[in-house]
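Lecture 7, part B: from sequences to assemblies.

Below are the input chains for today's worked example.
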Amino acid sequence: MIYPLVDVFIYSFEEGYNSASQTSFGTGIYNYSYVLHDPYFLQALKNTLILVVITVPTSTILSLLISLGLNKITKLKELFQTIYFLPYVTNTLAVGLVFMILFKKTAYTDGMVNILINAFGGKSVDFIEGPYWAKMMVLCIYTVWIVMPFKVLVLTSSLASVNPIYYSAAKVDGTSNTRIFFKITLPMISPMIFYLIITGFIGAFKAYSDAVALFGTNLNVAEMNTIVGYVYDMLYGDSGGYPSYASSAAIILFTIVLTITVINLLVRNKKQVNV
Amino acid sequence: MKVVLKNLTKRFPSRDKKHPEDVIAVNDFDFTIPDGKLIGLLGPSGCGKSTTLNLISGLEKPTKGQIFFGEDDVTKLPPENRGIGLVFQNYALYPHLTVRQNIMFPLQNLKGEQKMTKAEMNNAVMGVAKLVQIDSLMERRPAELSGGQQQRVAIARALVKMPKVLLLDEPLSNLDARLRLQTREEIRRIQKETKITTIFVTHDQEEAMSICDQIVVMKDGVVHQIGAPQDVYDSPKNLFVAKFLGTPPINVFEGEVKEGKLLIGKETVLEDVNVKDGKVFVAIRPEGFIPNEEGKLTLDLERIEVMGRDISVIAHHPLCQNTDIRAIVSSSNSIDIDKEKVRFDLKPEKVFVFDSASEERLF
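Predicted structure of the full complex, as structure tokens:
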């Protein structure tokens, strides 16, 4: 379990490590310095952070709203649950293709989303090869869409597991629905929400295939690279063959994810003491 | 605040396709619960007592009939506007809140004129906490409390708004035997101190008999008898009520009335019974037996149990419905356990005669 991590850690300090000959020029922090000054890495870091900051809260809140809705309805509940779960069992790349068709602007058509925008009097935007914000928006929507089913599933079942007696008790005491939600429902399912936020953070930091599905493998050119994408490119991409740089980038990613997870856990523990 | 139930009926649609007719949980209840008393709704499980409580609380809507609190018709009011406190069977304390926060929860819901300041809330909370004697546990969470303490917190939470009616749903069923005795005294004390009309649901007749001012005996959604515990015990209206009240249970024999004489088998056990001839059920309370070597009723002696003050005689009779007949006699009597038969005279006031078809009381 630990060995690969230690190995990567060592590589990250060995300058110009060559995996074929198992040799390096020497040790030092040069790799880190290179990676941190590499504009592609900084772009990837920025992309990843935007992705995390936007998609984790959005997908969690949206999933919570959908789960609350699913929990309320009685008719066709199972059907809706299945529908919401479908994206989870669908292949990322296939979904990416669908998103491409929805958003892409070609010589023949502007794509469905653009047609909609036009219908409301807006101007067409090239979401796949156009401006940075448009591409980022598509990536975020796509990511939210792909991570939601699992969250909806987890939240629906944890909502259903709250004993209805608490709601009866609250009702007898004349508690408003808002207060019931914030004072009873939310605290009771908070362990699950924390779990989803932590795994959501980790998942978003490790995003890669989503970007590939939408923008192809040449992510640096598309300005849509992620940290994992950068690591991959450094190893195998057209400009690849630099395992040392890849290791450094991976270690930086690992450090970020670890820090955020620890902060999350600390916040959670503190909250539990204070409630 | 007196509580009046008028023709109260609750039907639930049947989920069983083979029996599509509605389930009648509460059938045409018509009685008044007097102000400031402790009332026990008593009956076997599934008799509709919890449904009755839910109807009074407003958590369920009646199919038919009306509920009045005092002079006000509350039938259509939602639970929060009825001014009730409800204690659930499993307490339903919010696990993430401390005792203080749990008790304060209902107060924080108050709006408009009723809204309280922080200090008022704290006073109210400490007041009820002292009343139920949990004022030293205020910062604990429900998981850190014993069953009895949780029960007290639940009662405190129900009382903090000073409800007009306090409803308790099987309040003692989750407690062990010793705690149950203690807690029921406690409920009685709290009720007496607060003078709040209290309705509590139980399937345990001993519980109901020991603390209630009045009991309502129910079965299959029908009220069988209402009255002070001793009155109901001493003159049950029908065989069900007679059987349901009392430990050890009443002994039921198949008997017959012939020319004013009450017969069990061939033995005449009582004279001057003012009932017309026919088959009957004869029910005899365990304390209704007087040992007498020349007694009128002969039983097959099984064994005796000595309990200090009393002796319990366990016997059999071919016409008795109980597997064992239990007679409780004073320990000053000596029963010869080597004999196969034991004979008793009967105390007429402890013997009830019921119609064998309708099971209604005849004598």
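Note for the exam: The two ends of chain A are 36 Å apart (CA to CA). Keep this in mind when comparing with the next example.
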